[in-house]
Amino acid sequence: EGGDPTLDPNPGSSTGHHLHFEIRLNGTQVDPLEYISAENPRPVSTFGLIGVNDDVSGASETKSAVCESLLNAGFSKNAVAGILGNIASEGAFRTNNLEDCYEENQCCKINGKNYGFCVHPEIKGFGSDSLYTAGVDSGAYPRSKFVNDWAGYGLIQWTYPTRKAGLYDFAKGQNKSIAALSVQLAYFLQEVKGYSTTWKYLQGNYSAYEIGYNFCVDYEGPAFPC
After folding, report:
1. Contact 190/170 with Cβ under 8 angstroms?
2. Separation CA 170–CA 27 (nearest Å)
């Protein structure tokens, strides 16, 4: 809002066109920091990733790398906290995480639909996340099976065929592994912009809880309540 020129036509030492922002309560100027958060300003960058380290190993290092990358990309601290909370519960900060129920040979059935090794028994034979990833990267486990096996994969636990296809094609376009941190973060940023509610909360001045909750409900689209 512009200031009221009848009250204060040119406050401060401005010498040209400018935006004057203030908050008044019943006509009296009040501290705007009581109404907006200095710790969680609206981001001003284009959310571009730079210098993501694909050589990090272990959940702790990956968590730090994801946090640093997202902060450097311009996301607020609250937005990063909301994203990290969801990644922790989804992929446990392991980029090659193949959803645990498949590794443990437990047949998942959600809303009457079979998932994982119930659809493609070969999943059971890989024996580890790393071997599954290597099979996908090499083509031994072809794109058609990776896309359609309904096994949650990676930081976000991509599960739906169209979303896994996007991740696979994005990685191939970068000539990198589907488990590369730079691939998964860049694909996430590309994908999440298409989810209007999630993007609204990630860009806005909301609490970490509000951001995390709406990220879960809108972007992750879980089979079970957040």
Report:
1. yes
2. 54
109: buried, middle or exposed (CB in 10 Å: 19+, 13-18, 0-12)? exposed
Closest CA relative to residue 118, chosen from 131, 130, 129, 109: 109
Residue type at 111?
N
Report the phi/psi class of residue 83: left, alpha or beta, with left for phi > 0 and alpha for psi in -120 to 50.
alpha
pLDDT band at 44 (very low <50, low <70, confident <90, very high): very low
Write out the two tokens for 125.
């034979």
Average pLDDT score over the chain: 80
How many CB atoms neighbour CB 128 within 10 A? 11
CA distance 124 to 122: 5
C-alpha to C-alpha distance for 196 and 150, rounded to whole angstroms = 25
114, containing H or E segment: strand 113-114
What does the pLDDT average to over 45-71? 83
User: How many beta carbons lie within 10 A of that of residue 183, not counting itself?
Assistant: 24
Say yes or no to pLDDT of 100 above 80. no
Q: How far apart are CA 186 and CA 178, in angstroms?
A: 12
Within 13 A of 17's CA, how many CA atoms are on the CB side?
0
Predicted TM-score (pTM) of this structure? 0.72
What values do phi and psi take at 113, rounded to 5?
-110, 135
Residue 90 contacts residue 220 (beta carbons within 8 Å): yes
Phi and psi at residue 114, in whole multiples of 5°?
Answer: -80, 145
Cα–Cα distance for residue pair 99/118, rounded to 1 Å: 13
